[in-house]
Amino acid sequence: MNGDRVGHAEIDLAGMAVLMFDSGPGWAPTPAHMRVYVDDVQRTLRAATERGARVVTEPTELAFGDVVARFRDPQGHLWWVHQHVEDVDPTELGRRFQQEAAVKAMQYVGDTLEQEMSRGVAGA
User: Fold this and answer.
1) Residue 1 pLDDT level (bands cut at 50, 70, 90)
2) Could you tell me which residues are beta bridge partners of residue 60?
3) 47: pLDDT strictly greater than 90
4) Does the predicted model carry a pTM greater than 0.70?
5) Ranges of each domain in the chain
6) Contact of 69 with 115, CB cutoff 8 Å
7) Nearest one of 119, 22, 37 to 80, comparing CA atoms
8) HEC profile for the chain?
């Protein structure tokens, strides 16, 4: 920590190191986009919003067996949180993607991402 700027921080996620640091003086804004798998999307989203995050995509079950949600944290980082709920056979996956509900779910997650990215760098 250098004043109010983080110069180096690491966290361990399932045995993998993730390095994070704040932008330096004069750097262009570069918020991160993080995609992580969690045990419980609802609980993760609730914890994030309690800490000031804004929901971008409500939890949505997708045809390939994941529930996905997105939020933007107070620092401007966009988090994609996934919870794997089911292994889907490739044949079944093809059938599911033909169903109206699956098409609408994919459209919703795509639309919410497009809307968020159109808001600007930090989702202002």
Assistant:
1) very low
2) 68
3) yes
4) yes
5) 31-118
6) no
7) 37
8) CECCECCCEEEEECCEEEEECCCCCCCCCCCCEEEEECCCHHHHHHHHHHCCCEEEEEEEECCCCEEEEEEECCCCCEEEEEEECCCCCHHHHHHHCCCHHHHHHHHHHHHHHHHHHHCCCCCC
Exposed e or buried b for every residue in 13-41, given b needs 16+ CB within 10 A?
A: eeeeeeeeeeeeeeeeeeeeeeeeebeeb
**Cα 78 from Cα 117, distance rounded (Å):** 10
Strand partners, 33: 78
- What dotted CATH number matches 31-118? 3.30.720.110
Residue written as token pair 């779910």: 105
